[in-house]
Specification:
5 helices; disordered N terminus; about 170 residues; mainly alpha
Length: about 170
Amino acid sequence: MKLTQLLGLLALAACQCSFAADPSAKLGVVDVRQLVEGSSMMKTMSQDLEKQFSPQKEQLISMQKKLEDDSNNFAKNKSTMTPKDRKDLEAKINNSKNELAQTEQKFRAELYQAQNQSIGKIMEEVKAKVSEVAATKGIEIVFSSNEIVWSTPKIDLTSEVEKKLK
């Protein structure tokens, strides 16, 4: 976070140098987070990912339930089990734990990758619409409001870009 803020300040400082040469440069700001999170594309993406990953999620829940049942069975019956049965059930439980951990890790990695790809597409669309609004208004530089400490509301383009995204 500190690195992002530092880079933002450095970019702003560099821009101020160029504004000295051209004080008429027009600026704008947008709330990128609001644009991405509030977009209909984000809602669609969330629904699509839910549908796509629902079977894997159900599989994980089923595996967790089975592991819990086996663990409860072991705790309940271990005193009456033969040493071989106890050893076999312990091995089965350990294998189930390992399999569950691997399946969860794979699920999270696939979900994370799919989310990143979808958000990348949304960001491309947001950037295109920001560029469109900026060009229409003759704005030369648009900053993310998340990196700006303060700006006047009259240069905030967020609502105009939101309209273009719908």
